[in-house]
Structures are given as C-alpha cells and as structure tokens.
Design a protein that fits this description.
Blueprint: E1 3-4, E2 7-8, H1 21-54, H2 61-103, H3 111-119, H4 127-138, H5 153-173, H6 183-227
Antiparallel strand pairs: 1-2
C-alpha cells in the first residue's frame, strides 16, 4: 500500500495499464469481422460456380482458379488476424486478472488459470467464459469486493457466439475433408460455410464490444480501488 501527500492509497496493481492493448485488440477483431464479410462473399461466389458445374453447365477453368485463390487468400487473412487478436487477448486478460486479484477481495481466477482456461482441451469449452464472468464481476467499480450478481448477458452472448461459430465452421468443413470430395460435397461445404462465416462475423463484433466495455470497467475499478474515489481529470 502506497502513500501520496499523507494519503493512504489502496493496493497497487502488479501491471501498469497498457493503453494501446485494448484498442489494438478491438481493431484486430473488427478487421476479422470485415474480412469474414469478404470471405463470405468469396464462398458465395464459389458456391455459385459449383452449382453450374454440378448441373453440367460449362464453367471456365480461370473462374474456378480465381474462386479458389480468393478463398485461400481470405481464409489465410482471417486466420492471421484472429491469431493476432487471440494472442493479445490472452495477454490483456492475464494482466487484467492479475490486477483484479490484487485489488479486489473474492476474485476466483488466478492469472495462470486464465491461460489454462483457454489452452486445456475440454476445459476450454466453458472455462474461458467463467474467467471472463469472474473478471466482469470483479471489475464492478461501484463495489469493493467481487460483486454477487446475475451472470453478465454480454459475456455469455459472446461465448455462445464463439462456440456456435467454431461448431458451424467444423460442420461446414467436414464434407470437403475427403481426399477427393465430389462437387455436391463441395457445394454443401460452401453453403454451410456461408452460415458459419456470418456467425463468426457477429461473434467478432460482439467480442470487440466486450473488450471496450471491460476495458472501461477495469480502468475505473483500478482507480477506485487505489484512490478510494473517482480519479479526477487533474490526477489522470
């Protein structure tokens, strides 16, 4: 516990705020959403071409190759953006959980548990949402301890969309995983992938909103825990 000008301050958080981390995650998530929109259109174009091929209508090899190239390009970009957002999310959540555990009595998740929640197979079907729920309740700026309240709808909406997007993505890819899929199987893959991409797009937008809301709560909570009241503009 520190003192400034004879005034006792609350417990210091172990990590200083990284002001750029939250905005960068939000930008990457919105970029994922944008590129999923591009991917969705590429998949629709591929499905349209496949519908001609499976009906025995002539389709140029150039169009088939162009569609395939767009699908590969958009998929690689989406995966790269999502991987970048995921890594920064883990850093952000680890630091946030460490800070909340230091200043908020009753916080349940240790920082290391957050990493395990995401990385341990099976556990990561539910634990990431529980960790975010714990962080949400601990970051309530109006109470000193971890708030006892109903599960936050935004957290669980985000997690249900994430699970739905992943499940639909796996369901979409299944018909095309054979060594030599038929045109009908590829057509089914594309139609399922349109739905999966749409759900993934919504999940990315909701995740960005969640980060914005959580970042604001965390900053207010850390200031109130440390200073005992709202931090004035002159002290920022």
């Amino acid at each position: 516990m520190d003192r400034v000008g004879g005034m006792s301050l609350g417990p210091a958080a172990p990590f200083a705020p990284v002001r750029w981390l939250g905005p960068v995650i939000v930008i990457l998530l919105l970029a994922v959403a944008l590129w999923l929109g591009f991917l969705l259109e590429s998949i629709r174009a591929d499905a349209y071409t496949l519908s001609f091929s499976k009906d025995g209508l002539p389709v140029s090899d150039t169009e088939i190759m162009d569609n395939h190239a767009r699908l590969v390009r958009d998929s690689v970009i989406v995966i790269g953006l999502a991987a970048g957002a995921g890594i920064l999310w883990l850093v952000w959540q680890y630091r946030a959980q460490a800070n909340m555990r230091a200043v908020v009595p009753g916080t349940r998740f240790r920082p290391g548990w957050v990493l395990g929640a995401w990385l341990i197979p099976g556990v990561n079907l539910i634990a990431p949402a529980l960790a975010m729920e714990d962080l949400w309740k601990a970051s309530n700026p109006n109470v000193r301890e971890r708030a006892r309240s109903w599960p936050p709808p935004l957290v669980w909406l985000w997690w249900l969309l994430v699970l739905a997007g992943l499940a639909l993505g796996a369901y979409a890819l299944a018909p095309g995983l054979k060594a030599h899929p038929t045109l009908d199987e590829l057509y089914v893959r594309d139609n399922r992938a349109v739905v999966a991409s749409g759900v993934g797009l919504i999940a990315a937008v909701v995740a960005a909103v969640l980060v914005v809301v959580m970042q604001g709560r965390l900053v207010l909570k850390e200031d109130r825990a440390r200073f005992g009241s709202w931090r004035g503009w002159s002290e920022a």
